[in-house]
Amino acid sequence: MADEVCRTRVVLEIVGDKWALLIVRMLRDGPRRFTELKREIEGISQRMLTVTLRDLERDGILTRTVHNVMPPHVSYELTAMGRTLREATAPLLEWSVEHLAKIEKARADYDAR
Predict the structure, then answer these.
(1) Tens digits of per-residue pLDDT, 11-41?
(2) Which of 2, 27, 61, 66 would disulfide-bridge 82, Cβ 3.0–4.6 Å?
(3) CA angle, 83 then 16 then 51, to 5°
(4) HTH hxlR-type domain location, by residue (predicted)?
């Protein structure tokens, strides 16, 4: 049992990673190209996006497809397991959006003290 609890930390690292959750959220409506993800996820560097996509692919959360067109491009899509992660984390992301203004105000009030 203790071993299982320790191993769940690996999964919680995914859930606790802000970039991973934002990518999972961005893929909710279907496949997206790297450039679309980069453009729409404010603040993420190209390197961090690449690393996070590789990690999510390795964990079975998304698939990477190379399209043999000219010019070639790559798209990313949630797997069945990735879609269940999206469903599980959607309330957390919605809570974040709903409470963002209150959190920003609380931080400003705290910092002003």
Answers:
(1) 788 778 889 999 999 999 999 999 999 999 9
(2) 61
(3) 75
(4) 6-104
